[in-house]
Amino acid sequence: MKIFKLQSVLAVLFLSVSLVSCSSDDDKKEDSQTTSRAANVTAISGPATGKVNVEINYEISFIVDNACGQFDRIADISLGKDEGFQVEAKYPTTTCPNQTPTALHTTYTFLAPSKGTYVIKFKKSETEFITKSVVID
Hints:
Blueprint: H1 2-21, H2 26-33, E1 34-45, E2 49-50, E3 56-64, E4 70-79, E5 82-92, E6 102-110, E7 116-123, E8 129-136
Parallel strand pairs: 2-8
Antiparallel strand pairs: 1-3, 1-5, 3-6, 4-5, 7-8
């Protein structure tokens, strides 16, 4: 009877260790191949007027550190008491052969829920935003 209990405990222990060791590390591998950093926006272009609940697309121009940089995402940020957005670029963790800063573009979609004047703010530098006003009627 003691042998059966010992074998049962060892089997459960073995299965537990096997299941834990098979966990997926795919997300960590992907993160370790790239790094994300803020990119400074140089221009916002698009319409100055729009309609309620109608999407408006704005072209956002930004500079990445080198030719290997790519658009990653747009994130919410605060600079002091001002709130706005920041473009983040992703870079491979390997060395980039072309270290020349490169201008890229992405599209930001704005949807106003009500009439009024809205100010779209994107991070231009560590201390300021570049802005675009849009009147919704």
